[in-house]
Write a structure and sequence with these properties.
This protein is α+β, with helices and mostly antiparallel strands. It folds into 4 domains: 190 residues, P-loop containing nucleotide triphosphate hydrolases (Rossmann fold, 3-Layer(aba) Sandwich); 86 residues, Elongation Factor Tu (Ef-tu), domain 3; 87 residues, Alpha-Beta Plaits (2-Layer Sandwich), CATH 3.30.70; 93 residues, bipa protein (OB fold (Dihydrolipoamide Acetyltransferase, E2P), Beta Barrel), CATH 2.40.50.250. Helices cover 23% and strands 32% of the residues. The protein is built from 15 helices and 35 strands. Strands 18, 19, 20, 21, 22, 28, 30, 32, 33, 34 and 35 form an 11-stranded mixed β-sheet that branches. An 8-stranded antiparallel β-sheet has the order 12-11-17-8-9-16-13-14. Strands 2-3-1-4-5-6-7 form a 7-stranded mixed β-sheet, sandwiched between helices. Strand 19 and strand 20 form a beta hairpin. Helix 9 crosses helix 14. The N and C termini lie far apart (71 Å).
Length: 606
């Protein structure tokens, strides 16, 4: 059978998954009357809730007797490890660009990786039916981006397709009539080269994805680079560091068909398949026939730039809402995550029962924490911290920097530029983007963005859009001022009382409501001033035998401030933690006892 293996790459929300949906429908994969959810490839609960692709996924369908293997990739920079990994097993890419927004930070990131692998992209200008589409300007911006990234002459001569993924049509010329996706599919077949076949050589496959199936166990996915595979073939797993790591037989061989993996007896060279039956082999290992002992080269992945400390939940409320509490359970779950996600690294900290988890950004680590709490884990999480390097030449400290793009209404430009400058951001570009909006580009230290997103939304009345991608390492930029306000800390164990909260409201915004459990050392609100204040949210009204001259007024409280997991992680300081359970997200002090906090504060200042 003839194959075409290609990936769809783009910035977040430029329409990758929606375009794949349209391909499914027009290929005959679904019946005309079959009920299929939108963004069918985003079947993970968190992906559907957040409207983003988190995990790279493989699918396929037949078109004109050619099997098209498609990889739908994440569009957010925090999940770039997924993108880098899968590009090594495709022969072409569709670069999707929004007809209004144009190239964005992640567009640049994924295109850089594709060009470095000598892939020749097909550029798809998507959403050209939007009212604010600016097709010709976007094409110029895409060409300029190719030039800036050092594309070859062949890569610069990219095929161009105009499309509306939501409405299911594509055209090769703006004057053409649109009906379906045939022009796009024809371009894929003609411009994406078929895989190089070495059918007579021994079987070799580089593992690029790993996941778990409740019936099959560990499932390894990759492209067959030489030979073919059959059920019960004897194979072994090889990696560059340890040589042969495992010997086994192929108990299950799976081919992709739409959204399903179907069992097959054999697979041909050039196809993308999944195999089961190996217990040790992991991502970047080579699965091959036993006569092959040299592993295939794998693509290096950019290192993590941010870390958090995961530890057991030792608060007075620990164990009341979750079932997975011990450090052993947490450690096993993190090890399982690191095995399948090569952009995350795990190591046990010097402190007992704690683990240092490093990743690409707050969103990626936040997704991991959210997944674990839904699985029944209780955790304590520290404030994110950046990972520094030491220059081998000068010996000075280097820190990671981000390329930051901000789209906002003109009226908010001043306050945002002021805030970014205070966080050591340097303005690189500023230009109008139409409809009363401005686009700003900054280079800013990664640590300067920790905790800024919620403040940014407040400053722009929720209308601003912020995108970022890893830029590189440069010398340390100096101290950045942290949170400007203090917190209200409970000094009692019990349940919050309306009477107490009513008098605490004048001290600042509250995070708890009447009836919520509180404990000593728990953060229950934000202080109006910049210092920490111990308060008693469980205090009740004193009862006396004196009769009041009038009836007590009903207590009316403002709604408490709701804090999401990402907001909580960015809000806390170094001496604070986020308590995460399946039902609750609470803020607390690292040391619950006030005397211990004072002692540790004195030690830190000396």
């Amino acid at each position: 059978m003839e194959f075409r293996n290609f990936a769809i790459i783009a910035h977040v929300d430029h329409g990758k998954t929606t375009l794949v949906d349209a391909m499914f429908r027009q290929s005959g994969l679904f019946r005309c009357n079959q009920q299929v959810e939108n963004c069918a490839m985003d079947y993970n609960d968190l992906e559907r809730e957040r409207g983003i692709t988190i995990l790279a996924k493989c699918t396929s369908f037949l078109w004109n007797n050619i099997k098209l293997n498609i990889i739908d990739t994440p569009g957010h920079a925090d999940f770039g490890g997924e993108v880098e990994r899968i590009l090594s097993m495709v022969d072409g890419v569709l670069l999707l660009v929004d007809a209004s927004e144009g190239p964005m930070p992640q567009t640049k990131f994924v295109l850089t990786k594709a060009l470095a692998l000598n892939l020749n992209p097909i550029v798809v200008i998507n959403k050209i039916d939007k009212p604010d589409a600016r097709v010709h300007e976007v094409i110029d911006e895409v060409f300029d981006l190719f030039v800036a990234l050092g594309a070859s002459e062949k890569q610069l001569d990219f095929p161009l397709i105009y499309a509306s993924g939501r409405n299911g049509w594509a055209i090769k010329d703006l004057n053409d009539r649109h009906s379906d996706l045939t022009p796009l599919l024809e371009t894929i077949v003609t411009k994406v080269p078929p895989p190089t076949l070495s059918a007579d050589s021994p079987f070799q496959m580089l593992v690029t994805m790993l996941d778990y199936d409740q019936y099959l166990g560990r499932v390894l996915t990759g492209k067959i680079l030489s030979g073919g595979a059959k059920i019960n073939d004897a194979v072994h797993a090889v990696n560059p560091k340890n040589g042969i790591v495992e010997k086994a037989r192929l108990t299950k061989l799976l081919s992709f068909e739409g959204l399903r993996r179907i069992p097959v007896e054999s697979a041909d060279c050039g196809d993308i398949v999944a195999i089961a039956g190996l217990e040790v082999a992991t991502v970047a290992d080579t699965i091959s026939s036993t006569e092959v002992t040299t592993p295939l080269a794998s693509v290096p992945v950019d290192p993590p730039t941010l870390s958090m400390v995961f530890s057991i939940n030792d608060s007075p409320l620990g164990g009341q809402e979750g079932k997975k509490l011990t450090s052993r359970m947490i450690g096993e779950r993190l090890a399982k995550e690191a095995e399948g996600n090569i952009s995350i690294s795990i190591k046990r900290s010097d402190t007992q029962d704690t683990f240092e988890v490093a990743g690409r950004g707050e969103l990626q680590l936040g997704i991991l924490i959210e997944t674990m709490r839904r699985e029944g884990f209780e955790l304590s999480i520290s404030r994110p911290s950046v990972l520094y390097k030491i220059s081998s030449q000068s010996g000075e400290k280097l820190e990671p920097l981000e390329e930051l793009y901000i789209d906002l209404d003109d009226e908010f430009t001043g306050i945002v530029m002021e805030k970014i400058t205070l966080r050591k951001g340097v303005l690189q570009d500023m230009r109008p983007s139409g409809a009363g909006k401005t686009r700003l580009k900054f280079i800013i230290p990664t640590r300067g963005l920790i905790g800024y997103h919620s403040e940014f939304l407040t400053d722009t009345s929720g209308s601003g859009i912020m995108n970022r991608s890893f830029f590189g390492y440069e010398p340390y930029k100096g101290t950045i001022e942290g949170r400007t306000r203090g917190v209200l800390v409970s000094n009692a164990l019990g349940n919050a009382i309306p009477y107490a909260l009513f008098f605490l409201e004048e001290r600042g915004a509250l995070f708890v409501k009447p009836g919520d459990p509180v404990y000593e050392g728990m953060i229950i609100g934000e202080h109006n001033k910049n210092n920490e204040l111990d308060v008693n949210p469980t205090k009740t009204k004193q009862l006396t035998n004196m009769r009041a001259s009038g009836k007590d007024e009903n207590i009316k409280l403002s709604p408490p401030r709701s804090i999401s997991l990402e907001q909580a992680l960015s809000y806390i300081q170094d001496d604070e933690l986020v308590e995460v359970t399946p039902k609750s997200i609470r803020l607390r002090k690292r040391y619950l006892d006030p005397n211990t906090r004072k002692k540790m504060s004195r030690l830190a200042s000396t």
